[in-house]
Amino acid sequence: MKRAGDPDDRDRVAPEAMPAVDSRLIVREEGLRGYLGEFRRKLRSGELGSLPVVVAVIIIWTVFGSLNSAFLSAQNLSDLSQQIVGTGMIAVGIVFVLLLGEIDLSVGSVSGLCAALFAVLNVINGMNQWLALLVALAGGAAVGLIQGFFFAKVGVPAFVVTLAGNLAWNGLMLQVLGSSGTVNIPSESIVSKLYSTIFHSPAAAYVAAGVGVGLFLLSSLLDAKRRRSARVPFRPVAEIVLRTVVIGAIAFAAAYILNQYQGLPLALLVFLILLVVVDFVLRRTRYGRQVFAVGGNIEGARRAGIGVPFIRMSVFTVSGLMAAVGGLFLAGQIQSASQTSGGGNLLMNVIAAAVIGGTSLFGGRGSVWSALLGSLVIGSIQSGMNIMGVSNAVQFMITGSVLLAAVVVDSLSRRSQKAAGRA
């Protein structure tokens, strides 16, 4: 029997019902011990971030470097930094699509089509190379918009739309190239120069590294100031400085290695600048937040007033545009556009790069830096096996196994997050 003065059951709050304290606040209060505890908590809850792919790069470089010293030579690493650009550019577009939990199977054909458009318009028909470049980029964006329309407005599954597009755009590429089948791109062409130009002055690489580190520091400080003003958890200055030192060490080490061979490749610089810009769009703009919202919970996004069809169409437009950019870099790499452009294992590599880099196949989680990290993994595996003289058949099997491992990690991570109530 309840006695007078006993608290009502409704006033009792179970321990598990108490509002959880933001873990980041605990981290700030406990210092190093708090950071270690936060790291263990993230591992248990499946919030792995870029850790698996960073570990993979270290293992790959260690294995191939021990098997053949040429792998870690300045020349090979410099060549690798150029070779991953074309694949990485296309993978950026794939990241946008994956953030919605969808897939684009047409990017290989679109990249080949846009390379063929540039080559035919500029080399065969004599169009100004800048105008031909713009037409090729606009063509990629238009293709993506068309596919996005059928997906967002008509309701055709993205898998079906882009699978059909993969066949259709490949056929159009063959039609554009005509009977010759191959169009050679001159070395003085803007497309060839974008890939092959290298800044030989050592200052170029170090200045680029310094600017990048400075922007990272400034962005981190401004973000901390903004969060402090909003009275939400923020990174202390000491942590920001430590993170900047780590990023700076990596950036200047990369600059040093590049300078040991020829210098800073323009293609790599363009790729990094694009990643910074696109990352800002996704993380700091209203549009980027809407992309994550649609990918995380489409019904919730609709109720919040987000134009879901527009976001879907825009994402596929970005995918088509980035496929065009990547296709032009790939054409500049081999200085030609042919019937095999955009074919082979290109589609598999760009999807693998995005997924291996840490972008979830289930949507709502990922970063454009996944394109860089994933491309680095794929490129490192291919470069190392080429140096070792491994056949293409074995390379395909190993790359496929790495992709499967990445998907398994993604699935296990998502399951752990659900168990921890974070997904």
Give me some keywords for this one.
423 residues, mainly alpha, ABC transporter involved in vitamin B12 uptake, BtuC, 2 domains, two-stranded antiparallel sheet, 4 strands, 73% helix, globular, membrane
Please tell me about this protein's structure.
- The protein is mostly helical.
- It is built from 17 helices and four strands.
- It has two domains: 50-196 and 283-419, ABC transporter involved in vitamin B12 uptake, BtuC, CATH 1.10.3470; 201-261, no CATH class.
- Helices cover 73% and strands 2% of the residues.
- It is globular, with a radius of gyration of 24 Å.
- One of its GO terms (molecular function) is transmembrane transporter activity.
- Part of the binding-protein-dependent transport system for D-xylose. Probably responsible for the translocation of the substrate across the membrane.
- Pfam families: BPD_transp_2.
- It is found in: Cell membrane.
